[in-house]
Design a protein that fits this description.
six-stranded antiparallel β-sheet, 10 strands, 3% helix, mainly beta
């Protein structure tokens, strides 16, 4: 949970993807991490894609599109607010359950995109 002055954000992170849920505006953002920086773009449908490019190694030409729009740094939304771990979802097909932080500490996530 990220508690910003504009309202709470819920970060969902798993091995395949990362998303931010803006509870105040009921918006879902896709998070793309490029060269150590998190960028966000609003999800418009379930097929929203992302990518990034740099021309001739010139970092000033970095482009991170998410869907049809240019992504923004995640800090534009989070305002560098502190994040707190509230729990995780665990289980298999048809048997998912929420495990609060009080019952289980945060576990490291092995992101497939970091390999």
């Amino acid at each position: 949970m990220i508690d910003t002055p504009k309202g709470p954000l819920l970060r969902l992170d798993d091995a395949v993807s990362e998303h931010l849920l803006d509870l105040a505006t009921e918006s879902t953002y896709l998070v793309a991490r490029v060269e150590g920086i998190a960028y966000i773009g609003v999800l418009t449908d379930e097929r929203t894609s992302t990518g990034w490019s740099i021309i001739n190694g010139d970092r000033s030409t970095l482009s991170v599109p998410i869907g049809e729009a240019e992504a923004k740094p995640m800090t534009d939304l989070t305002l560098d607010a502190a994040e707190s771990y509230i729990g995780r979802i665990d289980g298999g097909l048809g048997r998912l359950r929420f495990i609060p932080a009080a019952e289980s500490p945060e576990l490291p996530i092995d992101h497939l995109f970091d390999r």
